[in-house]
Structure formats: structure tokens, C-alpha cells
Design a protein that fits this description.
Layout lengths: L1 E6 L4 H16 L3 E6 L1 H9 L4 E3 L8 E2 L2 E2 L1 H11 L5 H11 L3 E5 L2 H9 L4 E4 L14 H20 L2 E4 L23 E3 L20 E7 L5 H11 L6 E6 L15 E4 L8 H8 L1
Parallel strand pairs: 1-2, 1-6, 2-3, 6-7, 7-8, 8-9, 10-11, 11-12
Antiparallel strand pairs: 4-5
Helix pairs in contact: 1-2, 4-5
């Protein structure tokens, strides 16, 4: 079977779970083409997976470590990148998959519908309207439009994949809100991780330890600095910060002795072996 797997590149969480899914698909004998962009595409290619370059659907903008939703909407509209559906459509035409899986990349879903392909949506949040609550009338109205949009998508896709444990043990359950009519199409796949439990070795830590994966790139950078400042409050707790793909950890020269910043790594599971020498 030929499978097209689209990835939303606005967070490496989407990317890592899609890498795991693609590797399992390939191991099962399927031909997989992944659609991605930016550092997400670069990471996927390091895993030896076939990748086609997509265009971003959204532009995330923020300050002080917080996402500025209004500025993000304006930046997205100005970029005109939502017009990239033509490129996505051409890639689908050339690859001609039997099935399409989209991890929160809605352009891929629309293109699949245009070509009458079965399409499955992977999400870990289905109540995006809450991001617009408590804001201006314009933003609240936009939130209602957004809810109408994704509710219709949920009704029309062939299935919805939640990469989490089944209820009631679902970690992201407070982020989920589906209409009763679509519940039969929701499938809890379990976490999509790169390594099995038996392949991961527990770190031998001599004191409490915090691993921060905020990354420090884009609007998240102020949060990165906040973690460092927090570490100064209690030197008995060790902190390991994983920097983002565009961050050079060498620029952080005034670090407390209980903080270590590591360069971006594409596989965090072996980190335990590094931590033995850090703490």
C-alpha cells in the first residue's frame, strides 16, 4: 500500500510521532512518502525517510514566551502560504497514494478529498476554540468560525487517530472534545514513540533532575530563559535543557552550575547515558 503522511511542522512533537508511525508503516511493507517543511523536514530526512517539501499552513508569533493568537492570524494571512494547496495537490497526484494520514495538516486533508482519497486525521487537541475565549469580539467570532471548520473536518474524515492511551487513561483527555456523532470514528492508538520500553535505560541520578524540551526557538525563547532563572532558585536540582534546532547553546555563558544546555538532538531516549556524567 502507498501511504502519504502529512506533518504539521509547528512542533517537534508532531514530527517525532509521525516518524515513529512512518517507520512502523515501512516495517510492515508499505511505501511511505512524508510531507513536511522547515526543521521538521530536516529531522525526518535524517531518519532516512522519503520526504516532500510542503508549505507551512500557519505562522506562529508571540512575545514573552506566549503565543500571540491575533498576530499569528494576521501573519498567516499576510504570508499567503495557505495557497500552497496547489503544490500539495500536485504531490498527491504524482505519488497517487492509496490512503492519506494527516497530523494536523489540513491542507493535506483538503487535497486528499479533491483526489477522492481515504484520509485519516491525527490530533491530540480537538477544542481549539478555547484559545479564542476571553479575547476581543473579533477573536471570539474567529473562534466560532474555527470551531465550525474543524467540527466539519472531524465529521468528514474517515477516521480520527489520537496518539494516546485509551480512555480513561488518556493524558490529553482535557484537550479533547468531540461531537457524539464522530465518536465511533475516533481511535486511540497509544503513544507513538520511537523506542520500546525495554530499549530505554533508566538514568542513575544522584539528585532531583528536570529535563526541559522547550527548545528556545521562535516565541518560546523567553520560556527557555525562565527555566534557567528558575534553576538558580534551588541549586540542589539539576536541569538539562535541550536547545532547539536553530539555537547555539554556546551563546549561554552565564549559567548556574546546576544547568546544562545540550545541542538539539533528534532522539532524546538515550539521554539517560548523558545524564550520568552531568549530575
Amino acid at each position: 500500500m502507498k501511504i502519504m503522511l502529512f506533518v504539521c511542522g509547528e512542533g517537534l512533537g508532531h514530527t517525532s510521532r509521525c516518524i515513529s508511525l512512518a517507520q512502523q508503516m515501512k516495517a510492515s511493507g508499505h511505501e511511505v512518502l512524508m510531507g513536511a517543511y522547515g526543521y521538521s523536514k530536516d529531522l525526518i530526512e535524517t531518519k532516512g525517510l522519503r520526504t516532500a517539501e510542503m508549505v507551512p499552513e500557519i505562522q506562529l508569533v508571540g512575545n514573552s514566551g506566549c503565543l500571540d493568537l491575533k498576530s499569528s492570524v494576521i501573519a498567516t494571512i499576510k504570508s499567503g502560504q495557505f495557497l500552497g494547496i496547489g503544490k500539495v495537490h500536485r504531490i498527491l497526484k504524482d505519488f497517487d497514494p492509496d490512503i492519506v494520514v494527516s497530523d494536523s495538516y489540513y491542507t493535506g486533508i483538503f487535497s486528499a478529498w479533491m483526489r477522492k482519497k481515504p484520509v485519516y486525521l491525527m490530533v491530540n487537541q480537538s477544542n481549539m476554540e478555547e484559545f479564542f475565549m476571553g479575547k476581543s469580539i473579533f477573536m471570539r467570532s474567529l473562534g466560532k468560525i474555527t470551531k465550525t471548520f474543524y467540527s466539519r473536518v472531524f465529521r468528514k474524515v474517515d477516521g480520527i487517530i489520537i496518539p494516546d492511551f485509551p480512555m480513561p487513561n488518556t493524558i490529553c483527555k482535557y484537550n479533547l472534545d468531540f461531537e457524539e456523532r464522530v465518536l465511533d470514528s475516533v481511535f486511540y492508538s497509544g503513544p507513538l514513540v520511537v523506542k520500546k520500553y525495554k530499549e530505554v535505560h533508566e538514568a542513575e541520578l544522584t539528585r532531583p533532575h528536570v529535563l526541559s524540551t522547550i527548545g528556545g526557538f521562535g516565541y518560546r525563547e523567553p520560556l527557555f530563559h525562565k527555566v534557567i532563572e528558575t534553576a538558580r532558585l534551588d541549586r540542589n536540582i539539576s536541569y538539562t535543557l535541550l536547545s532547539g534546532p536553530s539555537i547555539n547553546p554556546d551563546k549561554f555563558t552565564d549559567l548556574p552550575e546546576n544547568v546544562t544546555i545540550m545541542k538539539f538532538i533528534d532522539d532524546q531516549f538515550p539521554l539517560s547515558s548523558y545524564l550520568e556524567g552531568i549530575v
